[in-house]
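[Structure tokenization] protein backbone as discrete codes

[Encoding] learned vocabulary of local backbone shapes

[Begin record] amino acids and matching fold tokens:

___
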Amino acid sequence: MASRGKMCAMLSITRGNLVICNNNEQALACPAGIRWICSAIEANHIPTIYLSQFTGLALCYEDETRLVEDLFRDYNKVVRPVEDHRDAVVVTVGLQLIQLISVDEVNQIVTTNVRLKQQWTDVNLKWNPDDYGGVKQIRIPSDDIWRPDLVLYNNADGDFAIVKYTKVLLEHTGLITWTPPAIFKSYCEIIVTHFPFDQQNCSMKLGTWTYDGTVVVINPESDRPDLSNFMESGEWVMKDYRGWKHWVYYTCCPDTPYLDITYHFLMQRLPLYFIVNVIIPCLLFSFLTGLVFYLPTDSGEKMTLSISVLLSLTVFLLVIVELIPSTSSAVPLIGKYMLFTMVFVIASIIITVIVINTHHRSPSTHTMPHWVRKIFIDTIPNIMFFSTMKRPSRDKHDKNIFAEDIDISEISGKAGSVPVNFYSPLTKNPDVKNAIEGIKYIAEMMKSDQEASNAAEEWKFVAMVVDHLLLGIFMLVCIIGTLAVFAGRLIELNQQG
């Protein structure tokens, strides 16, 4: 039975031959330049195919190691990789947008997940693949080579540089491809005038920090950023995106151009969340406010309903205030609508107080003006189809206190009725006169009570007419106000597509 031992597969870098050592002492005795791999397996059970694979891997490792050592033996990553110092390094920049993480309207910061692709040629890192076993490309740490100091100019996080030291892909032609991932927090002027039906035009300005356009030239890979791997946001949708290259001349050095590539993103907010959670509840509060005028005044619950609606709206606004951008640069559409709803409810309370006051007026405190009677009793009911309503009686015909024939047989002692008027001799009778005075007093009191009752009924009728009139007006104002706030912006967005 074969003995078990720790064998070492010795691979010669210079000659490429395979040496099998039975112990560590033999491995340590191998000459310089030999690499060995230890494996705790039986030395006499290694298949030939495995040994050939080990040999190939070792040779590949040998070639890459020798290539890296040769490339970086005299390499200086501080010096620009050009053959002539008057030449410019051409850097191709491509932006791949992966995710729109958040939009902070208050601090005006847009957070995005991107991959920034950079390509340039390093003349000091070229080789002939035939000299290194056919190796055409290798991957090396990005902090070991010269890199363009590309930064995000409109950075809002304090860290302008792209500091993710991922590896770069180096090809035998000297072409370097570096695509580091990054989380960009860029400044963006957020205009909340049309919130939540708003569009925002945000940008990312990329450029070298110290190299001007004479030593480093940056060119966009495409006039549009790459959105092939973009993850859709639940709040925003990309309407348009484009990149431009700019040549900028500063006052400090008017003869030296500085280059930048600016990518613009036109984003449109998806308003469904705000429609369901803010606009529709406010609209329902407005309709509920209008129903206050449909409630009969005699029920005594008009003010209770009005105050309840106001308190409910106040609590609702306190809950959703965090959803609205807290900025003083402009009043957003949704803020205007919430203000409209609040004014709407408060106006209904004020008018309800006036209606209740009108309903409980009496002739002893108020005399109805002629114009009020003309408008609210004679005109509006006919216009508003109130003709079926029972109107207050206004019969002011003076009736004679004496009938044509009065039966005074019990007083005069004569049978039958006799004609009587105020100047009749019969009325001179003291008993008859006292009776007539009493009847006259009672009639005047009844007449006064009737007039007071009629006047009170007129005030109640006026209050009822005002209630019905305001019910229609408030419902109409609720619909028109909602359309006035939002319709214009919705039509504009529809025209823009």
The first strand starts at residue 7 and ends at 12. The longest helix spans residues 430-496. The chain is about 35% helix and 25% strand.
